Amino acid sequence: MPLLTHPLARRALRPLAALVDQRVRSQTRATRTEIGALRTELDALKKQSTAVGMLLDRTGRGAHRMPSEGQISTLVAQVAEVSGSSHARRAVTSAFRTVVALEALGVGRMAGGTSNVCGKLATIPLLAPPASPDVLEIGTLYGLFATSLTRMLHREGIEARLTIVDPLIGSQLQPDAAREAADPTGTPVREDVVRANLALASAPANSNYRIQKGFSQDADVRKAVSDRRYGVVVVDGDHSREGVLADLQWVEEIVADGGVVVLDDYGDTAWPGVGEALDEHLASGGSRLELLGRVATSAFLRARPAVSR
Ligand SMILES: C[S@@+](CC[C@H](N)C(=O)[O-])C[C@H]1O[C@@H](n2cnc3c(N)ncnc32)[C@H](O)[C@@H]1O
After folding, report:
1. For residues 148 and 143, what is the distance between their CA atoms, to the nearest angstrom?
2. Rounded to the nearest whole angstrom, what is the distance from the C-alpha of residue 24 to the centroid of ligand 1?
3. pLDDT, tens digit, for every residue of 143-172?
4. 189 C-alpha to ligand 1 centroid (Å)
5. Quick one: DSSP state of residue 170?
6. How far is CA 114 from the centre of its chain?
7. Are 238 and 266 in contact (CB under 8 A)?
8. Residue 169 CA, ligand 1 centroid: distance in Å
9. 173 lines ligand 1 (CB under 6 A)
10. pLDDT tens by residue, 47-99
11. Using CA positions, which residue lies closest to atom 18 of ligand 1?
12. Pairwise CA distance, residues 109 & 99, whole Å
């Protein structure tokens, strides 16, 4: 007979079995309480994630605004490298808050992923544009990026004077017609929309901006806005190779000495013509523009002093 099934052994082990039984029961009770608490926590998290999702996910916008810590760390490192500033994290954080706030309150959206948009907004002010507060944006869509940039420059003490060039004919134009699909926001690309957004950055009564409707390659458009030298130029209009080449040639003439030029979507595989155009432009020699580097999918350039005008 095995030892443990012997009646004497069973009797001797009875108190121990009772103790084990009691422990198991009390642990089961504790585990049940823990599971209950975890369920309550999960329900609370689900509620929070619904609210955060409504604020930050891509629905109705095209790109989500929920970057990972890894994405932000990479972005901060890139901003620091291109700008040489030790305030890159502060600038990226400030840019992110600005994007979320203005997209929540504004009309339409900003074009581009979170790293792309925050990279531009963080880096431009840190590059300390020259004395000229004039900013030119070629291709504005809803004007929300221009609005955000105005805010970001102000934080660095620069009161921007904004010039915008865009056809603003109701929808986004690109030479590749497939890109002209309806916008995920459903908002028309119109001047009144751009003005509504710019009003979020500056009171209309003391508005510091002008909007030139038309294509950046048009002689009339160029003439109208070539009356000054720009401290910052953002090239984000026609994304074809030919369109970007034409914009870069024009920018050479109108950017201030030491001015900052940003070429959006550089290195973005969705827009190969952008990269081809900049590489070709810089390789052709004689350019005033010096490539400082890339942040996310934007190239940053600084204008050397013009030899003669
Ligand atoms: C990518 S969106 C601009 C996005 C905006 N900069 C932003 O960050 O939210 C491109 C804009 O350029 C406009 N566009 C297209 N060709 C243009 C041209 N030749 N000159 C000026 N704007 C142009 C489009 O209609 C569109 O509004």
Report:
1. 9
2. 68
3. 999 999 999 999 999 999 999 999 999 888
4. 10
5. B
6. 4
7. no
8. 11
9. yes
10. 888 888 888 988 778 889 999 999 999 999 999 999 999 999 999 999 999 99
11. 215
12. 9
